[in-house]
Structures are given as structure tokens and as C-alpha cells.
Amino acid sequence: MKIALLSDIHSNLHALKACIAHARDNGAQQFVVLGDLVGYGGDPAGVVDAVMALWEEGAWIIKGNHDDMAVNPPPALNDMGSSSATWTHDQLNLEQREFLATRPMTVVHGKALFVHASANKPERWDYVDNELKAQQCMEAAQRDFGAAHVFVGHVHHQALFYTGAGRHMMRFDPVPGVHIPVPTRRPMVATVGSTGQPRDGDARSMYALYDDVLQTLCFNRVTYDTQSAAEAIRLQGLPEQMAHRLEIGR
User: Fold this and answer.
1) How many whole angstroms separate alpha carbon 137 and alpha carbon 181?
2) Which residues partner with 162 through β-bridges?
3) Cβ contacts of residue 212 below 8 Å, gap of 6+?
């Protein structure tokens, strides 16, 4: 089965639609959204509705930290994330908030674990952004879920951490569009990147396609209407930085 892995959409409906279309064109049979449907972007209601439609078709949807904040906004507005959460909360209706509130923290499919942040205490929202964090994530996934492969979001970058000869995690930076062998005998952690808010200097959207039969993983970059997504933020009166970062991929 070909599984499309999307994460960190961040209320960017233009990017979400582009990645869904790309995944379907490439044979995706199952969709997984690894959290952070909302936050920062200009169309939270549209994104939640689109993801709910995927869910009704059988997609697996994971809860992210920004989804949690949108349901229960923090009292102190001390950064862009918290202030965006308050605005996002007001844009969502009761059904949409309930959907976000009831998403699971993890989903297991065979030997694969899907989680927004680290498998090591997912509720702490730790970033898997180096080899040590990947090692902790993998050990928790094996211990608590019996998983050999872990797919995470949260860090807004695409990377593959695999078990080297010394049994410690090593980092590999993938080339978009290349199918990488990922046999279950070799434990690995993949950060699939951000669909709606890339932060690596490339404005193109991100998602990955996992084939659990052929045991391959392909990281993808998708061009979308970045300017319209940025304008959607400006039209809502949200901070200019939120719009500009989409244009520059930062």
C-alpha cells in the first residue's frame, strides 16, 4: 500500500490541495496527516474541512501541538504561535474544534508508527532534529509500540535517520523524488517535512510517500500557489512575517 504522509499544514489550503493531488497522481492509497493542521496560516477552517473529508475516506489523522493550542488557546500571547492559536480558535466552529480535540497522539500500522513529534513521550512535543533525538525516538517506538519505522512531523524539515553499523542513528538528507529502500529489518525515523510551512529555504511544499510492500520511501517537493497562500494571511490581518515566510520558505 502506498501511504501519503503529510504534516504541519498550518492552515495553508493551497499547499494541502497541491500535495493531495500530487500524491493521488503518484498512486497514494492511504493518507496520514501527522498533525498541526492549523496555526499561522490564513485558512484554518478550510484546511480542517479538507482533512475531515480525507478522514471520512479512511485517512489517519494525528494531533499536533498547534491543533491542541487551537482547541485550548494559551492565556498569554507571548509569541506568534500562541497569538495565532487564539485567532484560529475563533475561526473554527464547534465540530471542527471537536475533531481536532479527539485526534489520537499516535497511530500504528504494522511495523510503522505515526506521531507528530517524538515517540518518546509524544505529549511533550519534542523535536526530532538530530541523531540523539532520533535515537531516543526509535528506542521508545520499539519499546512502547513494537515499531521498526517511525514517521514524524513537527520539525518542518525532511530527513531520514537510520541505524548504522554501530547501532546508533545516522542522518541522511534525502533528494526529492528518489525512492529510498527502507527495509523493516533496519530501524529508521523519518521527518516528512511541512506541507504548509517549509523552513529550509525552499518554498515548495513537502510530503512523503511510503510503500509498505516494496519498503521504499520517497520524499517529495511540490510547487503550489505560494503567493495566494501568503495573500490569504495578509487578508486576515495576521502578522506580515507569517505571510513572508511562505514566500521565502523560512
Assistant:
1) 20
2) 170, 188
3) 1, 3, 109, 110, 112
Say which amino acid occupies 184. Answer: T
Encode pLDDT of 184-211 as tens digits: 999 999 999 999 999 999 999 999 999 9
* CA separation for the pair 170, 223 (Å, rounded): 29
156 and 201 Cβ atoms separated by less than 8 Å: no
Residue among 15, 80, 4, 2 at smallest CA distance from 47? 15
Torsion angles phi and psi, residue 182, rounded to 5: -135, 70
DSSP β-ladder status, 188-192 and 149-152: parallel
Joined together, the cell numbers standing for residue 46 give: 478550510
CA angle, residues 111, 63, 152, in degrees to nearest 5: 45
Q: Inter-axis angle of helices 80-91 and 240-248, to 10 degrees?
A: 100
Tell me the angle at which helices 44-56 and 94-101 cross, rounded to the nearest 10 degrees: 60
State the pTM of this model. Answer: 0.95
Closest CA to 40 of 222, 240, 225, 248: 240
